[in-house]
Specification:
The chain is α/β, with parallel strands linked by helices and 185 residues long. It has seven helices and five strands; from the N terminus they run βαβααββαααβα. Helix 4 runs antiparallel to helix 5.
Length: 185
């Protein structure tokens, strides 16, 4: 069976973590939409590529292959990728738990730089504000409403997982769901 799996959800739900774990378990390569969306820069995540460049990069790196995992979100710019998907995994997690994960992750990445007076403090707070707008139906950025609308257009199977548990448990649930779909065919 071919696996061209896209894992998406709000920032902090564990899309990258599950992507890496699933790719390891299935012996696939994993890619992240952040690497497509953002040009390398210091500080990171400030210089977006145009949408056509993102899709061209995806075509050059992995789309022609028969198997891969892609974590992150491309729902506003990656429509040419949709026909290549075999499965989508949508991760959810309550906002408070996402915020706690994001704070911990950014502390690990940047340490004192995100503390008040640090060089990344303003960007860090802006990122958290953006991430916490996910559940606001009026928010025009990456949002639950936007993801649900996008998921409703897909023809491939969509697996929904709540990630308020260990990453090992989420991986086991994802693998079980993929196995169930394979046996159903």
């Amino acid at each position: 069976m071919s696996y061209r799996i896209h894992i998406l959800g709000a920032s902090g739900t564990g899309t990258s973590t599950l992507g890496r774990a699933l790719a390891t378990a299935l012996s696939l390569q994993v890619f992240d939409t952040d690497d497509l969306y953002w040009r390398p820069s210091d500080p990171p995540f400030v210089d977006p590529r145009p949408a056509d460049e993102r899709v061209a990069l995806a075509n050059a790196l992995f789309l022609p292959r028969s198997n891969w995992v892609l974590s992150g979100s491309f729902s506003k710019w990656g429509d040419p990728i949709i026909p290549r998907l075999t499965h989508v995994i949508f991760l959810t997690l309550p906002a408070g738990a996402r915020l706690a994960r994001l704070r911990a992750r950014e502390r690990r990445r940047y340490g004192a730089e995100i503390a008040p007076g640090g060089t990344r403090h303003t960007a860090f707070n802006g990122f958290l504000d953006w991430a916490m707008c996910y559940d606001d139906p009026a928010f025009t950025g990456r949002s639950r409403r936007g993801h649900e609308d996008w998921l409703g257009r897909l023809t491939c199977p969509v697996i929904r997982l709540e990630t308020n548990t260990t990453s090992d448990t989420v991986l086991a649930q994802a693998l079980a769901a993929l196995d169930a779909l394979e046996t159903a065919d």
